[in-house]
Amino acid sequence: MAEPVTFQALASSDYVLSTAENFVLYVLLEALAGGAGGAGGGERLPLNLGIVLDRSGSMYDERRLEFVIEAVKFLARNVAPEDQIAVIAFADKAQVIIRPEQIHDAAAVRRALEDIDLLEIGGGTQMALGMRAAIDEVKKNLAANRLNRVLVLTDGQTYEETACIELANQNRDQMSFSAMGVGVEFNEKLLMRIAQDSHGKYHFIGDPAEIPGIFEDEIQGLRAVSVRNGRIDVVLAQGVQVREAFRASPEIYALGAPLVGEDRKVAYEIGDLEAGVPGSVLLTLVLPPRRPGPVRIGQANLRYEVPGVGERGANADITVEYTLDRTLMSKRNGRVMNMVDQVSIAKLQARAEEELKSGNVDRATRLLSNAIQGSQRAGNVKATQALSGLMDEVKKTQTLGTRAAKTTLLQAQAVVRKTQMLDPEALKDLQKGE
């Protein structure tokens, strides 16, 4: 029987210079799941969702609430008989407007949406209250054989941001959280943090008309999940250290650089995997000098759950050959280096953003220029366009304080964070190395 997941550990180079004191090696740990219900795959999982909708006063701007209602109608039209979906509206208070047992009742859904304007829940933004109510609803149908997720949509800053982060972290073992920000007034760092910490997704919605499509993409992604709760454990050889770790796909963000303890083990959670979408971690390792010869510098172990089957695993050795031949150092794995480039671009964009917030416009533009050059070398047209737009806006306004500047920033973040997967033929060429 075919394995439900393929797992590989790819090094940026097969060779390490024996005399180098701190040789830097990139390692891409990549898991790729097959389709649910297919060969080797598990059952397709029913949904158990809590949808959290901001109904504060600003949601009436630009027809935002109108598009949200259309998105909920889409959900109601596309639920499977075994799906359980609750809808919660929040402002200063939170109220469940559609309970899981009502989502299959078209008339009940229609009445709830028609009456959303009449809710006496205030006009502010208390997102934590909405999240808490959604968590309670999801827990009523919580099960290992369901996809348990909370989806949060907001267009504004919220009170009690720490409470939102704590709720996501306290419940991350039972459910994931996806966060959707509309417009430019919301706190993107908060929504990113909620999604990243719980292995959900973060979406920037620049145009409210995109809301139904984003909801549709989110649901399609959930229905494509074929394995769950992925976790990569890496045992490193003596002397090998982790300088940096990044989630490399499907989105790019920092995982930190944990200290390697006496057991020489580091661990990274990669959450649920959609069929055909790689779940990857990119490590920057620092290697000590050694005598020439082949060396296993690490062992990677992937553990995951297949719905209806149980826990499974896969292993991959990380091996290199130490050598005194400097000419071998020019050989690089193109697949890994492409991912290194994408991560580097995301890092430059994030650093430019911090410089702008500190008022260092010249420094920020230099960083953005480097990021644009990197995206051009990588052939990443979308990132080049987004970063160039941000650069032009920053040069014009010298700040992130304007609506236009914030919009271009959020657009650049969304494009740069999303891993740009290469077409199959290009991937074959890169896999061969350069």
Structural notes for this entry:
The chain is α/β, with parallel strands linked by helices and 434 residues long. It has 3 domains: 5-36 and 227-331, Sandwich (Immunoglobulin-like); 47-223, Rossmann fold, CATH 3.40.50; 335-417, Up-down Bundle (Four Helix Bundle (Hemerythrin (Met), subunit A)). The protein has 11 helices and 16 strands. The chain has helices spanning 64-77, 106-114, 127-140, 161-170, 188-198, 211-223, 334-357, 361-378, 381-397, 403-417, 424-431; strands at residues 5-11, 15-17, 23-33, 47-54, 84-90, 94-98, 147-154, 176-182, 202-205, 225-236, 241-249, 253-254, 265-274, 279-287, 293-306, 310-323. The strands form 3 sheets. It has a 6-stranded mixed beta sheet with strand order 6-5-4-7-8-9, with helices on both faces. Strands 1-3-14-11-12 form a 5-stranded antiparallel beta sheet, with helices on one face. Strands 2-16-15-10-13 form a 5-stranded mixed beta sheet. The longest helix has 24 residues, at 334-357.
